[in-house]
């Protein structure tokens, strides 16, 4: 039999609060832990009444009834919150144990009190976490180390179609679609079994058999000793984003109106044909321009013009060689490929094309005659990429616009004179930069619901001393090819900041200004440093500057480009994705780039009223912008009808000729000074 003193030593060392109380409710013995909690003074509690320690009210209502039941032989256990002068508010688990004093034949009560404050805090934190998991819109599952499911939240039940009872005890294999490659799962298990977090996308199958995609994070859960005991999976449904990406990818290669290839799609299809069939010198790439399409739109509405283009595209497909080698590369510009035909001279083929494409169209019983311009290039003996062939045909078409007396124009060496002309223009552009011939015009961006000015886009113009204002569409490509875009781009950023500083000095309530940036400007790798230096020298806050970058950023996606964009964003310079949806759309790239703003290309805005596809794309981009926490701006607003439609769709910001043409700096300053709503009325202008 152990020595009773050993038990007492053990109880004295215990973290639990231990005491013995006699039938008169007085302490006969307490351990150190009990003494610390109930009596911070050095005076011993032995012989002291329990009533005095816990207080009259608590003793009468809680303690004595339970002590009495214990004296009658009924053990008691309950939880209670108590305030300690030493330890503050504590959660306690109290146990009363009946004891019989063998020597005196008297009943006594053993008291054991466990401090469960920490346990209760952990339970409350756990309850919070479970509540968050339960309410989370993301799917959450917890499995054991073999992948058997132990917990699922309602979001997972909803998206999978399985009930909790159907999932618990099963492995996550019940959700597999069979379409995710096995090596993805091998990598997943190797990662989490190695104690690391796995992130990737999985395609799963609902209970009804339908498929869905989930962006998935799976992480090991560890116990207090650091041992992995469970795996937690948090999933985000990306099905809608996948659908949007598919639509945008299709948009990059397929014209939404006619179903023909876009420029990118045609170039790719042509290159595939050449790679497959070989280089045929007698083959041709033909570019066709419908003359007067704007007049047809004015006379018969955009719907009539679109119907004509659809019928025109059908004729192109009938004329083109190969499976659908026809494309629409602009509003009224189309292209087609003609494989060599040894039995038919080129001139005969071109005459047949012009005759077939120029025949009148029937619109609701009205014969609509059209005329076309044609430029073409033969493949000849020097192999070139498909993009080069397209550019050659475009140059020939451009020449046909200048010399419309010809039935068509072929690309020849003579057109290389245009290249020499570009050299001359490059020289003049260099002079323009030195002589301060460049200037910025500012187009307002407004709150569509109020017409209030919220920001502006700075548009570069060349005020040529002889030819007047030259559009950037003419000289920017030359600047990019001649390496002048660097100094011109730096000038544009500096000029915008200097205007902002001037307007601030005049006490005007200025708005953020956006400057268009060419990707060529990033090639030096020091563009963020240039922007930072300009901001420092002009004293402009980074938040007042926005940089607009076209969607071709995705075509030239690279680590150094992404690094520079993140540096700019870290400076609090806003980044805007311009002309979104017109080219290299990719949600994968878009997730990586730190854009604050996405601009819907004006082509979709223009056709918003009569093209369901354009409307769907606007809706999709709006959803995408929301997912990326980016603002969305509509370009090309030219009527109240389009504005109201955009507002109904939840688009808040926009710009376009309806509100204002691009304004010279002094006119824009006047607009800031007046603080008028847009568009301006005649009274406001006066």
In words, what does this structure look like?
- The longest helix is centred in the middle third of the chain and has 27 residues, at 293-319.
- The strands form 5 sheets. An 8-stranded mixed beta barrel has the order 18-19-21-22-23-24-25-26, surrounded by 5 helices. It has a 5-stranded antiparallel sheet with strand order 2-1-5-4-3, with helices on both faces.
- With 686 residues, it is of the alpha+beta class.
- The N and C termini lie far apart (110 Å).
- Helix 19 links the parallel strand 23 and strand 24.
Report the end-to-end length measured between terminal Cα atoms: 110 Å
Rg computed from alpha carbons, rounded to a whole number of angstroms: 39 Å
Q: Estimate the mean pLDDT confidence.
A: 84
Counted by DSSP, the helix tally is 24
Secondary structure: helix percent: 40-55%
Q: Got a strand count?
A: 27
The gist of it:
This protein has 686 residues and is an alpha+beta fold. 42% of the residues lie in helices and 25% in strands. It contains 24 helices and 27 strands.
Features:
686 residues, alpha+beta, five-stranded antiparallel beta sheet, 27 strands
Task: List strands and helices in order, with pairings.
Layout: H1 4-13, E1 17-21, E2 27-30, H2 32-38, H3 50-54, H4 56-71, E3 76-84, E4 88-101, E5 106-115, H5 117-135, E6 139-143, E7 149-152, H6 154-160, H7 164-167, H8 182-193, E8 198-205, E9 211-222, E10 228-237, H9 239-253, H10 263-277, E11 284-291, H11 293-319, E12 326-328, E13 333-338, H12 346-358, E14 361-363, E15 366-368, E16 371-378, H13 386-402, E17 409-410, H14 417-434, E18 438-447, E19 453-464, E20 468-470, H15 472-481, H16 485-505, E21 512-517, H17 527-538, E22 545-550, H18 559-570, E23 574-580, H19 587-592, E24 597-600, H20 602-606, H21 612-627, E25 631-634, H22 640-648, E26 653-654, E27 663-664, H23 665-674, H24 682-685
Parallel strand pairs: 16-17, 19-21, 21-22, 22-23, 23-24, 24-25, 25-26
Antiparallel strand pairs: 1-2, 1-5, 3-4, 4-5, 6-7, 6-10, 8-9, 9-10, 11-13, 11-16, 12-13, 14-15, 18-19, 18-26, 18-27, 19-20
Helix pairs in contact: 9-21, 16-17, 17-18
